[in-house]
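WARN no homologs supplied; continuing
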Amino acid sequence: MNSSRRQFLARTAAGAAVIAGGSFTTAGPALGSPRNLTALTGATVIDVVTGHRRRNQTVLIAGDRIVGVGRLPIPRGTTVIDATGKYVVPGLADMHVHSLGDEHVSPPLYLANGLTTVREMAAPDPIVYDWRDRIEAGTLLGPRMVVASQIIDGDPTLWDPNLLHVLVVDTPAAARAAVRQVQAEGADFVKVYSRLNRASYFAIIDEARKVGLTVHGHGPDQVTSKEASNAGQRSIEHIHSLGLAVSTRETDVRRMVSEIKVQTGDYNAWFRQMHPIEWIAANTYSKARAADVFGTLRRNNTHVTPTLSMHRVLDQIDYTSLDPNLAKYLSADTIGTYDYVIQNLYGANRTAEEISHQRKMWAWRKHFVSELIAHDVPILAGTDTGTPYSVPGFALHDELEQLVTAGATPRQALYAATAEPARFLGLGRDLGAVEAGKIADLVVLDADPLTDIRNTRNIHSVVTRGRVIGPAARAKMLADVEAAVQAPATVSLAAGGCCGVTGSGH
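OK structure emitted
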């Protein structure tokens, strides 16, 4: 059993249990003596697998489960919500986040934007495990959280220890000890990073398998994408390493990567040295190499999280800024950190040629994602929230739009944020579809996302584990976040993104 699913079931009392007295059908559930029944009536239900629209449907919810979908009789005592003219999709998932702020910031921003599941891609502070467990226990309102370990990186690590604590390993023994440590700390999976050496990386893979954890993360500089996939790494985050793998000059670019020299914490130096190598790889793209590498990923069910939102910012530094309509949801400290990182870590000391190449790389990355889609590589929608100028929750809608501009259909983009994450996390029996028997994680939209993916932003209501967050409640959640980021600092979570960014909340 997938480790994420096993730990999820261990933490939730419901598991896959049937609502007492109920049978799950689409024709008419035998509800016995139901309690806490809610019906969404008159809705158009979207099947994210087929793209079919089922019109004038009732979605019947008992407790935290969907117990019927169809043209159903409504039992007496049911709370009825008129969803005529609305569209119901599964709850959304952002599969690469680094949460900002304290519990009054990221969790409500995720939910208000229809995110009912997030994959937290590093646990720099034990507080994120506390959020996860309190959400599961029902004592904190927020999305389901599947949480990575602390980052495990090589020596020297790309991270400044004053910004983010990283487990640094340089031997197989240290790598195995790190895996056992993060398991004891409560990680749902192991997060690997760019500068791991080969021996340490393969020791992590082996030890994680022994202790029942999966491995997700970056493609290490010393390991090819095919090697990572064949070893069993479940996901590869971002496009950096994959771009190198499909070059006719892969041997040359790999050698160049092996010659990169960095000191501890100098992520910018890594990026500056990686840029010309990526440029070479992008200009020597091989369809034959792509077919080979992407075929390996597909056969091994290795998922890719492109994080186009992150790449757009870092490739388009000179043309990117914070959406002024969303600034109110970030603290002054977070905005100041974002500005500092852009101006000093990424914007400074570039040549005109570098600037030109970066801008062209953004077009290349979108083409690269279109090739992944064409080769049926499983894609996860993820934002790398924590990158400048991303805002938790809102960023996922940007990512869905970017996936479509890169060549995905709206249905494929929705699938990458719903059914595919559920399958990846081993929760396909419980999540990812508007079907009887599933957990009632839903988004009710005012407009059809299959017509225009930007309509995922037009949220009417969110349902999380059967709890309906209607328009008034959503508005209050957002207003409360505005107030929270203006309040004096309490305990906040430093968010470690892919790219040398620390976002501090209030």
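Residues 4-34, 502-506 have pLDDT under 50 and may be disordered.
OK
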